[in-house]
Write a structure and sequence with these properties.
single chain; 1454 residues; five-stranded antiparallel β-sheet; 9 helices; elongated
Length: 1454
């Protein structure tokens, strides 16, 4: 810096002569001031700001800040830095040398730092002086180095990069919100429509900027149950679920409703949340018994607590409201379980006292609602009463050998059990006493309590066991029969009664000796009275005296002395009378003995007794066989134990017998001979008794030798010495009987095994024992010791071992367990043996395989891997053994994508995978064992498919079109951001894409940067081009832009996006009516109604036009006048159209037409347009009445077909004005119809005159159509025959009267009326002609240019005739006909010569002629018509009959 100043030097001014003269000189001094570092730097701009896109990426340029040293002389360089600030660090960076600020991280407009400043990043940049030479003096400057700061504002243009997020709003303070996607709600089932689900606390927010935070809320589930509020959200809102249809909140139908809320942003991105709404029950259902009446049965002998039946009720409520309690009312016989409804016996039951109970039951729910039911309990009979005989005993009498009792024997018994029940059904039987079946019991017909005892075979007392017969001593034997009465119950009950049957015995048996003959030996010289022998005879008669026997010695025999012997008459003992019996004189005596009974007609028998006299001792003794019968002796018996007495007889009177054992043979228990028997026996002789005593003389062991055969000998020592030895031998078998001297022994080969988890009583095996003893001593009983009883039971008889209810488990108990079995015999005392057995536990497949692989293991496989790639190995174990632990591996889920080695569980791929289709594959591995009842286990594993960069970016098919809107006439600007392309790669690092415009109609008017921002490059004009099409292409490389691509190519190229840019219009055009003139008709008697007469339509090329219609003026125009009628018509808005309706009733004499001025505006005052409408007033003469035999209801069914057929017949479009029941003179016939119609000419579009219609209907080719629809007449014409004579005459007479009246009137007004009508018709015809000319000029149809409508063109009404026509559609009123080129010009003209129509006046016509009305405007024609009518009447009736016919006419003829 240089400072310039002048330096002046002057002297003292002293000069000679004392004068002062000051002299001076000036010099310019230039001072160069050296600058020092004392001024801080300053920035070149007062503020720095820049707008960047939120999508700017790292390294992208933002702006440059520049600062300059305040010490201009030094002009040191600056070092720039961003002052640290939370939220800025890591987002932006600055080049310290150049001041260039660029993006260093993620630019997120929604970050905290940005949102706090309204979407702005605000931070400070410091510029710091840098001393390039490191001057010493700079160190002395205060605050060196000097710096300056400036605020930098970065505005971030928002992109829609945030989805709406749902939060749980715990209170009104949104700072407390917690992000959440699942919500729980609860609402009672009775909640009314319009009520919100309480306490949901749902809050949704899109933190994008306003233009990008618009989103809609909707329900994708349960939309028929709830409404969402609000439906549109800007930024954030609390969300409510509102009940829409309360009838669907029915707890009994569904207890939970899952509601999905979808938030959809304007870009189409979506977020969702679910609300699980629990429907809580209210007690709105009463419990209902399953039956109004429950019926049960219970046996009368049931004990307390016996279950009878279960009463059940249901309640559609839930929770406590559905908790049911059952009670009984006023009952002490039964009780009910309050929870289960089980009805049980409480008191004693006796069917014989009460056989049915009626019990009132109540069920009450937890809310107090209740229901009642009746329980009917039938007490069923049990057989608790035996039959009881009415008498304690019965008596019967019968003759022996007779087949009937002397008197009838009836037995009676009763049973108090239920009649008709087997328990009371009595059957009689003879239970004892009838040994030979001589008797039977026959049940009495029609009686269950009475039976008759009958004789079925003759009774023979002698055939009975004497013990069964009790004789009275008078020749009568009594038989006691026991009769049993048994009921049919189960088990049956019975009682018995004795019947004493007295049988009169007959002496029908002779005595009979027990032997045919008798022999006796007595010593010779026997003394008197010596007993010889006894004879005995029996008499088979049952009772005395018939069976009493006395004995006599008869005259027969060879005794030399008849008195040698005596006989006792009572007992038959024979004794010696004469002791002088000498064997030498007579060795043998024959005696005849007679036995005689004591009965009537005594009977006898004889026998012979032979008595032999014995001589001296010369006979050998004889062993008595009975004493040699088999004998038994206990083993181990002591010596001298007596076994048997051996007895011998000797005919000699003085034998001296001795006994001895001569041999012994022996056998074991199997009957086999034993070689060495020993000497275990001896015989001692009892001399006094002459018997031998067999005794034990050694050890006896049954188990060694069980049987001995002993040869014994007896010898008579007194035998005469000179004779041979007198002996006898015999054999006695001695069996050694068992004593319990041997212990049982187990058979050791028993196989015991059991399946683990075997059911109780499963057979384990069977053991057996042997015991050398026999009998009870060898009868074995099996048992188990106390410890073993936990596991097994054993059948004490068979030794079969079975399981208890404790289960065997091989896996915990081992392969076997030891049990101790005990075998005991039944000897006294009992001997027992115990032995330990091993029970093998057979493995069953009772353990599932256990997968040892960690289910949370992270499994991965790269996409596109070739099939067969190894993935993972699943391992498992099984606690079973053998085949039950033989494991195999299979895939239950994922087997189409993976395979598994069935043996080792290794998993391999079967197909290549695409991570874009699925990032995770889920497989379910089943491990199954090989047991007979296969067991298995499963594990589900997730296999992550690792993504590779193998997909190009693309636009989804349903997002191939993107629409943006921009106002016309705007300077170039960024209008929108196109959607980001999809990339099927899973990882975001594989999603790099570039965007460029490659075609379309507006490719040169728009620009696209790689941040996807779409910019205009010039002003756009809506009127020139309202929209543009662009083709955007996305690719992974930044290639050169293509051109000339049609947007139609987009559909076939997934990398292309069709963008439609709609240019927004501004309201700068007026609306325009679609017709310059509207013409239509209206009936003179039309009634006011808001139903449209006709519709006006206007259009506005401005898109946002809101059209409003109005009627600005209404005039009634006739040939002479034009009268304002402002309130006659009104107009209503409908879908941007105007419906004109009749607002007030027309004057009955109204004629001409109405002219309406219609106005439309689009809401801007200067944008108005007008048009005219003419409504011709139409008289009712244009409608044709038809008379049909169809009822109005039936005609409505065929109405469409009628219109079609009549339109074809008339070559015109036919319209039904009304269908009403037929009205006769004094009544209404609802079975018939009056159909009023009119027709519109297909060519001229004008109403056809009624005369023209009737003329066509009168033609021959119309008859089939008329018959089809049962048309019996139209106007005043009857179809099917000429008018009958009565009708003709009456019509003629009426015609004359009417004609006379009309002639008088018409003479006065004919000229005026004719003139006025002519003017109107000419004007109307001119309008038609002009309309047709305009149509020809523009080649447009009448409808397009506003031709006169033929009739009302709207659904529901026909205002011309003032009647509703609700069945018509719009298309029914449109022209569907075709006209011939040769049609008359008259078809397009207004019908002339029409007359005023009075509906009460009939038309006149000739039978079969055209229905033309008489026209009296010209005299010649009217007179001709009158004459024709009179002539027709005269021809039909004749002049003479005319008067009488007239008298016969009545009103019904019309």
């Amino acid at each position: 810096m240089f400072v310039y100043f002048n330096h002046v030097s002057q002297d003292q001014g002293l000069a000679p002569c004392n004068q002062t003269v000051i002299k001076s000189s000036t010099a310019q001094i230039i001072v160069n001031i050296g600058d020092g570092p004392d001024t801080p730097p300053f920035f070149m701009e007062a503020r720095y700001s820049k707008t960047i896109n939120e999508t700017n990426t790292k390294g992208e340029y933002v702006l440059t800040v520049t600062a300059q040293d305040g010490d201009l002389g030094l002009n040191w360089t600056m070092e720039y830095s961003i002052i640290p600030k939370e939220g800025i660090d890591g987002v932006f960076e600055i080049d310290k040398s150049t001041g260039v600020i660029s993006v260093s991280g993620i630019v997120d407009r929604e970050s905290t730092a940005s949102l706090q400043n309204g979407g702005l990043f605000v931070f400070e940049v410091m510029a710091l002086e840098v001393d390039p030479l490191d001057h010493t003096f700079s160190k002395d400057v205060i605050n060196f180095p000097l710096n300056a700061t400036i605020e930098v504002t970065i505005s971030v243009t928002d992109v829609d990069d945030n989805l709406p997020v749902f939060y749980n709003l715990n209170g009104s303070d949104t700072s407390s919100k917690v992000e959440q996607n699942e919500f729980q709600g609860e609402i009672p089932e009775s909640t009314s429509a319009g009520v919100s689900v309480p306490n949901l606390n749902i809050y949704v927010q899109d933190i994008d900027a306003v233009q990008n935070s618009q989103f809609s809320l909707s329900l994708t589930t349960a939309e028929d149950v709830f409404l969402i509020s609000p439906e549109s959200v800007s930024g954030e809102a609390a969300v409510n679920l509102i009940v829409k249809n309360s009838s669907l909140l029915d707890y009994s139908a569904q207890k939970y409703i899952l509601v999905e809320i979808t938030a959809k942003s304007s870009s189409g991105s979506k977020a969702s949340a679910t609300v699980n709404v629990t429907i809580t029950d209210i007690n709105n259902h009463s419990p209902v018994f399953d039956n109004a009446t429950f019926i049960g049965n219970v046996a009368e002998n049931s004990v307390n607590g016996t279950e009878v039946l279960i009463i059940q009720a249901t309640d559609d409520d839930a929770g406590k409201n559905a908790e049911l309690t059952y009670t009984l009312q006023n009952n002490d016989i039964f009780e009910v379980n309050s929870t289960t409804g089980q009805l049980s016996v409480l008191g004693d039951l006796d069917r014989e006292a009460t056989n049915i109970y009626y019990v009132a039951a109540t069920v009450t729910d937890g809310g107090g609602r209740r229901d009642v039911a009746t329980i009917i309990v039938n007490v069923t009979d049990t057989n608790d009463n035996p039959p009881i005989f009415q008498r304690s005993s019965y008596v019967a009498n019968v003759q022996e050998n007779s087949t009937s009792f002397t008197t009838e024997v009836l037995l009676n018994a009763i049973d108090d059990d239920e009649p008709g029940n087997p328990n009371s059904e009595i059957n009689f039987s003879i239970s004892a006493g009838d040994v030979f079946g001589n008797f039977d019991i026959i049940k009495q017909p029609n009686s269950s309590t009475q039976a008759e005892l009958v004789v079925i075979s003759p009774v023979d007392l002698e055939s009975l066991n004497p013990e069964q017969v009790v004789c009275s001593g008078r020749g009568t034997g009594t038989i006691i029969l026991e009769v049993m009465a048994t009921d049919g119950g189960t088990p049956s009950r019975n009682s018995t009664v004795n019947v004493s049957v007295s049988v009169q015995d007959i002496n029908d048996h002779s005595p009979k000796f027990l032997q045919d003959s008798y022999e006796a030996e007595i010593p010779e010289k026997s003394s008197t009275g010596f007993f010889v022998l006894q004879v005995s005879a029996n008499d088979s008669d049952a009772c005395d005296p018939n069976n009493l026997v006395e004995y006599q010695i008869g005259p027969g025999g060879n005794t030399t002395s008849p008195s040698a012997f005596d006989i006792n008459t009572e007992d038959g003992n024979i004794t010696v009378r004469d002791f002088q019996l000498d064997r030498d004189e007579q060795e043998t005596y024959w005696i005849e003995v007679i036995a005689v009974d004591a009965g009537t007609n005594r009977m006898s028998a004889t026998t012979t007794v032979v008595v032999t006299l014995l001589d001296i001792n010369n006979k050998s003794p004889k062993l008595v066989g009975a004493s040699l019968e088999n004998a038994e002796v206990e083993e181990n018996s002591a010596n001298d134990t007596v076994i048997r007495e051996i007895v011998a007889t000797d005919p000699d009177h003085n034998p001296d017998l001795v006994y001895d054992i001569i041999s012994i043979t022996c056998f074991d228990v199997g009957g086999n001979p034993v070689a060495e028997c020993g000497h275990p026996f001896k015989i001692d002789t009892n001399a006094s008794e002459q018997v031998g005593i067999l005794k034990v003389n050694g050890e006896l062991d049954r188990e060694s030798i069980s049987t001995y055969k002993i040869r014994v000998e007896v010898q008579d020592l007194n035998a005469t010495s000179n004779l041979t030895v007198q002996t006898d031998t015999g054999e006695i078998q001695v069996s050694v009987t068992d004593i319990n001297d041997n212990y049982p022994e187990f058979v050791t080969n028993a196989v015991l095994n059991v399946n683990e988890e075997a059911d109780q009583n499963s057979v384990v095996g069977q053991v057996s024992c042997t015991d050398l003893d026999i009998g009870v001593n060898a009868e074995i009983r099996f048992s188990v010791d106390e410890n073993s009883s936990y596991w097994i039971n054993i059948d004490p008889l068979t030794g079969q071992i079975s399981t208890t209810n404790n289960l065997f488990d091989r896996e915990t108990q081992g392969d076997s367990i030891n049990v101790t079995l005990i075998a005991s015999d039944r000897g006294q005392p009992s001997l027992n043996t115990s032995q330990q057995f091993a029970i093998e536990i057979i493995d069953i497949n009772d353990n599932d395989p256990q997968i040892t692989t960690n289910s949370s293991a992270v499994l991965e496989v790269e996409e596109n891997k070739d099939p067969g790639a190894y993935v993972f190995q699943v391992t498992a174990t099984d606690d079973d053994i053998g085949r039950n632990a033989d494991l195999s591996y299979i895939l239950r889920l994922g087997y189409e994508q993976f395979s598994i080695n069935a043996t080792n569980g290794k998993i391999f791929t079967k197909v290549p995978f695409d991570a874009e289709n699925s990032q995770v594959q889920t497989i379910t591995v089943e491990v199954r064992d090989n047991g007979p009842a296969t067991r298995s286990n499963e594990m589900t594993l997730n296999i992550n498919i690792l993504d590779l960069d193998d997909n190009e970016p693309y636009f989804p098919k349903d997002e191939k079109q993107f629409i943006v809107t921009v106002d016309e006439e705007q300077d170039p600007l960024m209008i929108d951001t196109i959607p980001v392309a999809s990339d099927d790669d899973v990882l975001s690092e594989n999603h790099i894409a570039y965007y460029f415009i490659v075609g379309g109609s507006g490719e040169f008017l728009f620009a696209l940067d790689n941040s996807r921002e779409l910019w205009t490059t010039d002003r756009l004009d809506y009127e020139t081009t309202p929209s543009y099409d662009l083709v955007i292409q996305v690719g992974v490389i930044n290639s050169t832009n293509l051109t000339g691509i049609s947007w139609n190519d987009v559909q076939s190229n997934s990398s292309m996006l069709h963008v439609t840019v709609n240019v927004q219009d501004i309201n700068d055009n007026s609306p325009v009516f679609d017709n310059e003139l509207y013409q239509t008709y209206i009936s003179y008697n039309a009634q006011p109604s808001q139903e449209a007469i006709f519709q006006v339509v206007a259009s506005d090329i401005d898109l946002k036009s809101n059209l409003t219609y109005s009627i600005t003026s209404t005039s009634l125009i006739t040939a002479e006048t034009s009268t304002s009628s402002p309130s006659t018509f009104g107009i209503l808005q409908s879908d941007n159209k105007g419906n004109v309706y009749l607002n007030s009733e027309l004057s009955p004499d109204a004629s001409g037409y109405f002219e309406l001025t219609l106005q439309v505006t689009d809401g801007v005052a200067s944008h108005i347009n007008e048009t005219k409408a003419e409504l011709q007033i139409v008289q009712s003469t244009e409608t044709v009445p038809l008379f049909s035999e169809y009822s109005p209801a039936d005609f409505a069914i065929i109405q469409d077909e009628f219109i079609s057929d009549f339109s074809a017949l008339l070559n015109a479009q036919v319209f039904i004005d009304k269908v009403i029941p037929h009205v006769a003179t004094d009544s209404t016939d609802k079975a018939k119809s009056e159909v009023y119609m009119h027709a519109v000419n297909d060519v001229s579009k004008e109403l056809m005159p009624k005369d023209d219609v009737i003329q066509i209907l009168n033609e021959a080719n119309s008859s089939s159509v008329l018959v089809k629809y049962a048309i019996t007449g139209y106007d005043n014409t009857v179809i099917g025959s000429d008018i009958n004579s009565g009708q003709t005459l009456k019509i003629a007479i009426i015609a004359v009267i009417v004609v006379l009246v009309i002639v008088i009137i018409l003479c006065l007004v004919t000229f005026i009326v004719y003139h006025r009508k002519l003017k109107a018709k000419l004007r109307f015809a001119k309008a038609i002609e002009e309309s047709n000319e305009e149509m020809l000029k523009t080649n447009r149809t009448q409808t397009e240019i506003g031709a006169v409508p033929t009739s009302n063109m709207f659904v529901g009404a026909n205002p011309i005739f003032g009647e509703n026509d609700e069945n018509k559609t719009t298309s029914d009123w449109q022209d569907k006909g075709e006209s011939s080129d040769t049609d008359n010009e008259e078809d397009s003209a207004v019908v002339a010569d029409s007359q005023d129509y009075n509906p009460n006046e009939p038309d006149f016509s000739g039978g079969g002629q055209s229905n033309a009305e008489p026209d009296f405007s010209g005299g010649g024609q009217s007179n001709a018509q009158l004459l024709a009518a009179l002539s027709a009447a005269t021809e039909s009736f004749g002049e003479d009959n005319l008067a009488s016919v007239f008298d016969n006419l009545d009103d019904t003829s019309f």
